[in-house]
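$ fold --in a.seq
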Amino acid sequence: MDYGEMIKRLKSELDIGAFPGKDPEENETPDRSPFEVLISTVLSQRTKDVNTHKASEALFSSYPNPKALAEAPLDHVKELIKPSGFYNVKAERVKNIARRVHEEFDDKVPEDIDELLDLKGVGRKTANCVLVYGFGEPAVPVDTHVHRISNRLGIAETDDPEETEKVLEEEIPKKYWIEINRLMVVFGKNICKPRTPECERCPLTDMCRYYEEVYKDEDR
C-alpha cells in the first residue's frame, strides 16, 4: 500500500482535529500539556468524546497541574469527572497518576514510554497518545477505530490493538506515525463506521480489502 497516498487522501477529506477530550464542536486539535493529554485520555476510556470534554474541562479548571490534582479531595474529583462515567475508578486512577507525576517526576509527565506504562491505569494507547498529542513525538496510538480500520484496509490481520500497533509500526514509515491516530479516528467516526461503513463516501476504496471482498462483486 502507498501510505503516503493514503495519508494524503485522508487529510484532503478529513483534515480535522482529534484528541481525547477535544470539544466535538471544534475542528482544531487543541494545544494541551502532556499532563492534560494524559489525564484526558484516562478519562476518555469507555465514554464518548463529549463526555470526556465536559469532565476534562471541569477537572482542569479546578486542578490544573499534578500537585493540585494529587492533593484534591477524592469526592470532589469524582463529582467533577462524573460525565465521563466509571467516575469512582477513574477518580482514584487520575489522582494516583497525578501523585506519582508530582512526587517521582517533579510535576513533569515522563516522555519515556516505559515510564508512562509504569503508571497504574496507563496502557499503550494512552502512553502513545501522550507522546503524539502531548510531546509531538511519533508514535502509533491504537484505539478501536485504528484497530478496526487497519484490519478493514488489509494493513493488519490482528485480534487486538497491541498486535495492530506492532504491525503498523513495522509497515508504515515513521514519518507518518504522528498522523495515523488523528486521521483514522476521524475517518472511523465519520466514514468507516463500525457497523455501517459508508463506502460510497470513502476515498480509500481502491486500497481497501473490505471493499474488495464485500462490495466489488456487486458492481460487476
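$ fold --in b.seq
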Amino acid sequence: MGCADPTPPAGRRSGHVVSCLSTSSLSSPQLTTYLPKMASPHLKPSLLFVSHPLTGHLTPTLRVAAALPHQGFPVFFLGPTFHKTRIAAAAGGEITFLPLLGTADFNDLAYYSPDNPNPPTSNYFSLPWQRRGWIDLERTWIDPIPDEWRSVVAALKEVYAREPARKVIVVAEAMFFGIMPLFYGAELPEGMERPRMVALSVTVPFVRSRDVPAFFVEEEGKGGEGEKEGREEAWRRWEVCTGGLKKRMERALREAGAVLEGGLEGAFLSGQNYTCHEKILQLGVPGWFYPRLDWPEGFKFLGVLPPAEEPVGGWANLPAWWDEVKGAREMEKKIVVVAQGTVEVDPNDLILPTLRGMAGRPADVLVVAILGRKGAVLPEDFAVPENARVTDYLHYDAVLPYASAWVHNGGYGAVQHGIAHGVPMVVAGEGMDKVENARRIERSGVGLNLGPPGPWAEEVQKAVELVLDEARYWQVAAKLRDESVGLRCFKSVGDEIDGLF
C-alpha cells in the first residue's frame, strides 16, 4: 500500500531528472534557478499547497495555508481560477495564487448547480447518489490527473524561480490525486530538486485498516471473529466493485508519467494517496474517530479548524433578521441551525423536513435555514413557519456560536464546525464521505444519524429535541471541542513542517 518513506521505491527516479514535458512548457526563468545547491538551510521552506478544487476540500486547505505566512513560510496555492480572488486575498494577500491548468481547472459550484447547462450526463441530477458519485470520481477526480500533474510541475517551476534560496515542501490535500505521479517516478525538469511531500487530510482518511469497517460497504459479520471476517469480506467486495476505477486511475497516472510496474497496490481508495507522503496531517480529533491501532507512519491529528474570527467590518451577507439570532438567549429561545451544503442542494433533502418538523415548537425554538448558495430560494409553494428564518448563504462561524443544535448532511467541513463550536449534531445525508461521517457522529455520541436524505419531519423533530434536551450530547460536544483546542491546529501544522528540516 505504499509507504511514508520519502525515498522512492526501487526502480523509480527522483531528484535531478530529465523532464518528460516539452521544453516549451517550461518558459521564463532559467532552470539553473532550481539548483538545490542554492538553497539555504537557514531559511524556512517555501510551501506549495495543492487541493482538489471541490469547495469542501479547498476551503479547509486554504484556511490551513492562510495560517502559515505569519509563521514565516512563503506560501503558494495551486487552485482553480474560479476561486482565484479568495485565495489571493487569504492571509491579508500573503498567499501567491497559481492556476490549475486544463481539465484540472474545475468550477464545482457550476458543475453541481441544477442550472448547469452542460451536466455530466443528461439525467445526472435524477440519478441515485452512488451513480452520481461514480461519475464524479471518473470525471473530476481521476481523469484530470494528467493536467493536475502538469499544473504541479508548472507551479513548482514558479515557486523555485521566485524563491531559489529555499527548499520546497508540497502540502497536498489528500484527495488531490495529481501529486501522486511524483511518488511513482514521474520526471521533473532537469535540475529541479524533488520537494518534500506532506498530506493534509480534510476528510475521513481513506486508509485501509484492520480495525475500521470498509468504506461505503455494509458489514455482514457481527461480534468477535464474525466482525473481523465481516470486515475482510467488505473490503473484498469494495476491491471488486471499484476495480474499474482503479484501472482508470492507473491509466491516468501513467499518462502523467508515473511508473507503475504491476499497477497500484491495494484497492482503490485504500491509502495510496496518503502513504505516498512523508507525513499525514489529519484535521480532526481522535475522540470522533473509530479507535484503531494501525495508523500509517507519520500520521498526526491536528484538531479541527478553529472558528474563523469575525472579519473587520463584520460578517458578510448578514440577513435583516440577524438581531433575532443575537438576542435569542435573552428571549430564552434555542437556535437550531440547518444547512443543505454546496453539493447536494435539493431543499427537500434536509431543509424542508427540518422546517416542518420544528414548526411545532414556535415558542422556544428559532430555526435558521442556510440554503448554501447565493441567490438560492425555497419553492414558492412552501410556507415558511413562523419560527423559521431562511437565508441563501451565511458563514457557519457567524451563526454557530448561537446554536443549540446543528443539523446538516454530514459533510466533513460541517462536522468540523460543529466540533469547533461544541454543538451537538443531527445528520441526514449520503454521497462520498457523508455516510462515513454520519456513522462516526453517532458512534462518538456527539449527535444522531437519521440515515439517507429526506427524513420524515417527525424523525427530524424527535432527533433535534433529543439533542436539545439531553445533556449527554452537549457533554460529548464540549469534550471534543476541548480536545481540539488542546491540539492547537495551526501551530501543529507549522511545527510538523519545521520538523522536516
